Structures
1.
Amino acid sequence: MLRQKNVLTDLTDEGKEIDDLVAGLDAAGWEKATPAEGWTIAHQIAHLTMVFALAEKAAADAPAFEAHVSGLGPSFDAAVQRGLLPYLADGPDKLLERWRSQRAATERALSALEPGHIVPWLVRPIPAAVLAAAGMMETFAHGQDVADALGVRRTYTDRVFHIAQFVVTTWEFGYQSRELTPPATGFGF
């Protein structure tokens, strides 16, 4: 089981680190291309904001989460692209404000739950601590794209432990989200 207190603290710290990377960017900085094909820094932060909004719903209002997810359609990638649009329309200042407020709301919602409390999620229900680790994975990965676009070399910490643990816990999701059958045998550490 994931260490709830540490994962929430580390999620907050990881978000702050990414916030520090984008806080001083001008409009041109937000439009810098990232290693993710077709995505700018604005796309990365919009995606994080969107994912954190989903996580807040899952943690604080399961029926609202279920209603939202039921309307996403069968294509995971198309749903992600559609989900970015309202955030990208805001412009950099508003997007940064939404990223900050959504992170705080999601952190509050997750911290109100016991680590083992089961919440709905995209493929199957998961413990709240695993959802927090999913936030770590998203923040780390998309934050790395932002850092790469800015030419910033990040200092890695032991926060990556939560990501490794998350991958082992949910490895089959990557297959299922792409409509592939997971191998019969998983992996561990």
Note: The first strand starts at residue 118 and ends at 119.
2.
Amino acid sequence: MSLALTALTLSHFRSHKRAALELDGRPVAIYGPNGAGKTNILEAVSLFSPGRGLRGASAADMARRPEALGWKLTGVIASLGRVHEVAITSDSGAARQVQIDDKAASQIALGRIARVVWLIPAMDRLWIEGAEGRRRFLDRMALSFDPSHAEAALAYEKAMRERNRLLKDQVRDAGWYGALEAQMAQSGYKLHQGRVMALEYLSDAQMRAETAFPVAQLDLVQSEGEMPGSEADLRDALAESRFRDLAAGRALVGPHRSDLYGVYAAKGVPAKDCSTGEQKALLISLILANARALSEQIGMPPIVLLDEVAAHLDAGRRAALYDEISALGAHAWMTGTGPELFAELNDRAMRVLVTEQDGISQVEVVA
């Protein structure tokens, strides 16, 4: 069983005035000069899964300039033995609207037919940037396993913002805090459990696979103390922390204080202290593990997006990556500046050339 995007059309999306691709389910190697619009195609594909896409951009930011007329994506998704027609639109900067088989649908409904995972150059600093970036990375993986994870994250952030507003205003009446802390505890504990579940899936998938990429030993740590062990414990911890939080003007307890800690298992070296090449290899290992775990969970591999990944790998590692993708059966979309970066794929992939003329991206299937 496979998951594939067998047709894709972009209209007034980013640099693409109009582009249409017919696909046969093989991996897609997209190449062309920098700035031509290759990553924009990957971003379009990423929107066929729950969430804000690989750039985390607003709908307004995705509109082609200078027209800013709104944009539309259409796709045909083969999933679990069925074929679905999906349309994603945004009119003049309005929030995205999703239709599946001509019926309005939610983000969670989209997650029932398509799962997408990705690796983009912005993630290369994952191990050395702040904890917030690592939480987003982990939440994206948790969302791939459970599309409702996004709802827990949004509910927690909303309740925390409202509580933080009370803290900054130095409100001391306990009655104002109880309901918000109950909401934070309920959604926050679900958020934490989703992250723990994702780490378990990833660790298991890494340990059971023979791969050319190194294993990353992962742990979820708190910046201070430990994460409360239950919803009730989290609610109590928030109540007990009010006086400290009043002084700080923000919540000091909860899953927003978590961090993803990684170690290069074979060397016992923290990921943050590894070489740039080792850090990249660890990231690729996690994306492949995510895809393998999803394949086992939902019965088919997800769509995999790899932006400029080949440029950071030597020929041997590139060949190993392409072999793993092919063995997994994933409909992978990859970008690079030249066709030589995909030579090891041979006829296992389609090739698409993207160029730019007068500010408009041009897309051509070449093989």
Note: The chain has two domains: 1-115+302-367, 124-295.
3.
Amino acid sequence: MPHDLAGSAAPMQRQKLEDALRPAWGDLRVFLLCARNRSFGRAADVLGVPATAMMRKIDKLEDDLGCKLFSRDEAQLTLTGEGRALLFDVEQMERLSLNVARRARAPAEVSGTVRIAVTEGPGNFWVLPRLITFERTYRNIMVELRCVAGCAEVPRQEADISLQVERPSDPDLIATKIGRLHIHAFASKAYRDAYGLPTSLDELKHHRIVKQDGVPHGDGTYKRILGVDSLEGIVGISTNSSVAVLYAVEQGAGIGFLPSSVIALGAPLVAVDLGVNHQLDLWLCYHRQYRDSDRHRLMLEWLKSIFDPKVYACFRDEFIHPDELTPLMVGSREHFGLQNYVAPKPFPTEPTTT
């Protein structure tokens, strides 16, 4: 064989080998579903195929990559170190592909303002970080985001769309359940080291609580959960702000009730297992008139996507322990986590003057 032909054949063979080893997006999507559902059976239900087909896909993907992605037992699938690293990369691929798809579907002339009202915690820590990416995709849409402590006033035309934890009774509104918040008890590591952690509701009565006011976290809810007639001597700080609760708990002020995803998103807290959890359904609400508005349809589709329980395990109907959520939300933590949450660090003691 002439030397120049032999030299050109080698790169072609290497390219063929690389193409053969490169996993297809369909195989990676199967991996993504298995990682998020922690089960071949549940992942198979999403695609409507037999569980054995999912197992064969994962077996082939592991063979192609030359590493184990899951530790398997009868109860569930658990990501290995290589699996967690791949999950991070595949979630990035998914997010970029969704952006491409949205651009392709969006009419070029879509523009105008969309007013969204959302409860404060999800608004600040879930919607807003992702809204920055949305804005880069849809440059002609202006979003007015109102983070509110209670329910948004969509019927009063204060918002076009609301995301709230109470189903509206107004018949003129369209309301769709898009997920569920699981509320769990948390404390800082400093609080744990100083005071220990309660293991039951009865022991919780001897600790300090950071309480969130307002619907549905009124005094009656706390009294009912704790089985007490009065919160005097138990509650150290009471606030209407979920952001303030997170900050106070992080700073060691007491035990607070927060969404189960806070550890998975990077907050330096520990879960307090009391044998009880609280659930709040998330309702997407909007006026019927906005069904024919391109910009509102885009926003509704986008909001449903970022709260999709099939993608984000923290919004599933079933409760997943906060510690077990961490490997399921690697991408969310890396890109939209709480590590860069900016809050003042108080002095251990107030400075004295002489």
Note: The first strand starts at residue 70 and ends at 72.
